[in-house]
C-alpha cells in the first residue's frame, strides 16, 4: 500500500513522520504554520528506545554524530554538591544528549526538501469518502491520510476532538538554557521543591534545565536569568556558572503541562502523533522520543496492513497504552522530584540504594520504557 499523507507540524515528531512515510514509499507534504522551519527549545536527551527508532528511520549515524553521551541519570547530587549516586570513570551510558535544533536539523535534511511548506497554518480539516482535505492559509490540499503532529495545542485535535480537554497545568515551571561550557558529564541535582538537570551537548556546550513548583501558570519575570540565578545561585558548582554563562535573551521560561488521556488517537483518516496525542511532562525525557516511536509504528502499520483504516486501528491499539502509561509515569516522577514533603525521603532512598542496582536500572535495557524495540520497516525501502 502506498499513498500521500499530509503531516501537520514541522517539529521533531512531524519530520520523523514524514521521514517514516518516505521510508515506506509514501509521499508526504509537511504543513508548518511558521514562516521558517526551526525547532523551539534548548536541549534534550534520547534514551535507547528513541535511538532504536531513529535507527529504523535510517538516521542513527547522523544522530550519534551530533549527540553527546550523558551520565545525567548516573550522577545524582544534592544542592551542596554531595553525590547520591555517581558514575564511575569509564562507565558506559545508554543516553545521548542533543541540542533540539541539531536533532531537528538532521531530520529535516533527511526529508525531501520539496515536501515542506511553511507559512501554512491549518484552518480546517474535512473528510469525505477515502480522502482528507486540509484547508490552510494559502490554499488547500487533499490526501489519503492526515498525520497531526502540531503539538500540545494542536489545531487538528481541537477541530476533530472538540470535547477533549485543553492542556492541564501540572503546577510546575521550568527555566532552560544553553551555556558555552565544555566537558561536563551530565548530572541531576535534587533540591527541595525542584531539580536542575545538566547535559553536555555538541560544540562544547551544556544544556541545563531547572524545574520547580509553581502555583499558577503564566507568571513571568522581567529578568528571567536573574530570577533563576537567585533560585540556584547557592547550589554547587558548576550550576551558578552555567546560568551566568547563558545569554540573558536565551534563557527560556516555560510552564509544564500535559494532556488528559484521549480515548482514541484516530478520527477517520486522521491520526494524532506526538504531543498532539500524548503531551507529557519532561521528567522521564520521553516526549520527543515517544513521537519518534509513533512515526515508526504508524509507518510499519501502513506498510503491513491491507487498508489505511486497518493500519490506523493498529497504530491506535499499539500506541495509546504505551504513551499514556509513559505520560502517567512522567507526571508522577515530576510530582515526586519537586515535592518538598517527599524530598528528604527520596534523597535517603537514593543514597541507600546499592550502586550496582542503580546502574542496572539505567542500563540500555534497565527499564520497560527503554527496552522497547521498534517494528521493522520494509527492507525494500532501506538505502
TrEMBL record:
- Keywords on this record? Monooxygenase, Oxidoreductase
Give the domain of life: Bacteria
The record places domain FAD-binding at 5-328
Q: Does the keyword Oxidoreductase apply?
A: yes
Do you know which Pfam families this protein is assigned to?
A: FAD_binding_3
Tell me a Gene Ontology molecular-function term this record carries.
monooxygenase activity
Under InterPro entries, the record lists:
FAD-bd (IPR002938), FAD-dep_Monooxygenase_BioMet (IPR050493), FAD/NAD-bd_sf (IPR036188)
- Segments carrying the region annotation (Disordered) are 318-341, 363-383
**Under what name is this protein listed?**
FAD-dependent monooxygenase
**Annotated source species:** Nonomuraea indica
Amino acid at each position: 500500500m502506498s499513498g500521500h499523507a499530509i503531516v501537520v507540524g514541522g517539529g521533531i515528531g512531524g519530520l520523523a513522520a514524514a521521514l517514516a512515510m518516505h521510508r515506506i514509499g509514501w509521499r508526504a507534504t509537511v504543513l508548518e504554520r511558521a514562516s521558517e522551519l526551526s525547532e523551539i527549545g534548548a536541549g534534550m536527551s534520547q534514551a535507547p528506545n528513541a535511538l532504536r527508532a531513529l535507527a529504523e528511520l535510517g538516521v542513527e549515524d547522523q544522530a550519534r554524530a551530533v549527540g553527546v553521551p550523558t551520565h545525567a541519570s548516573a550522577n545524582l547530587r544534592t544542592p551542596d554538591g554531595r553525590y547520591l549516586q555517581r558514575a564511575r570513570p569509564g562507565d558506559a551510558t545508554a543516553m545521548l544528549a542533543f541540542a533540539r535544533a541539531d536533532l531537528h536539523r538532521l531530520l529535516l535534511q533527511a526529508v525531501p526538501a520539496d515536501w515542506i511548506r511553511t507559512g501554512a497554518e491549518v484552518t480546517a480539516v474535512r473528510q469525505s469518502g477515502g480522502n482528507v482535505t486540509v484547508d490552510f492559509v494559502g490554499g488547500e490540499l487533499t490526501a489519503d491520510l492526515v498525520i497531526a503532529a502540531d503539538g500540545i495545542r494542536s489545531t487538528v485535535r481541537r477541530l476533530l476532538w472538540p470535547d477533549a480537554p485543553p492542556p492541564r497545568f501540572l503546577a510546575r515551571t521550568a527555566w532552560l538554557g544553553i551555556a558555552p561550557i565544555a566537558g561536563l558529564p551530565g548530572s541531576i541535582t535534587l533540591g527541595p521543591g525542584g531539580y536542575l538537570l545538566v547535559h553536555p551537548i555538541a560544540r562544547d556546550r551544556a544544556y541545563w534545565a531547572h524545574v520547580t513548583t509553581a502555583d499558577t501558570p503564566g507568571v513571568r519575570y522581567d529578568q528571567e536569568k536573574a530570577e533563576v540565578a537567585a533560585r540556584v545561585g547557592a547550589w554547587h558548582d558548576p550550576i551558578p556558572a552555567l546560568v551566568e554563562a547563558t545569554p540573558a535573551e536565551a534563557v527560556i521560561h516555560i510552564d509544564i503541562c500535559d494532556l488528559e488521556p484521549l480515548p482514541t488517537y484516530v478520527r477517520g483518516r486522521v491520526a494524532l502523533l506526538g504531543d498532539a496525542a500524548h503531551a507529557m511532562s519532561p521528567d522521564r525525557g520521553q516526549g520527543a522520543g515517544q513521537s519518534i516511536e509513533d512515526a515508526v509504528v504508524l509507518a510499519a502499520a501502513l506498510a503491513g496492513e491491507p487498508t489505511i483504516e486497518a493500519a490506523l486501528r493498529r497504530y491506535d491499539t499499539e500506541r495509546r497504552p504505551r504513551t499514556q502509561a509513559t505520560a502517567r509515569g512522567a507526571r508522577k516522577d515530576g510530582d515526586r522530584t519537586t515535592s518538598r514533603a517527599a524530598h528528604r525521603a527520596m534523597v535517603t532512598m537514593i543514597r541507600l540504594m546499592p550502586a550496582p542496582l542503580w546502574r542496572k536500572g539505567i542500563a540500555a535495557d534497565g527499564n520497560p520504557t527503554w527496552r522497547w524495540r521498534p517494528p521493522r520497516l520494509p527492507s525494500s525501502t532501506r538505502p
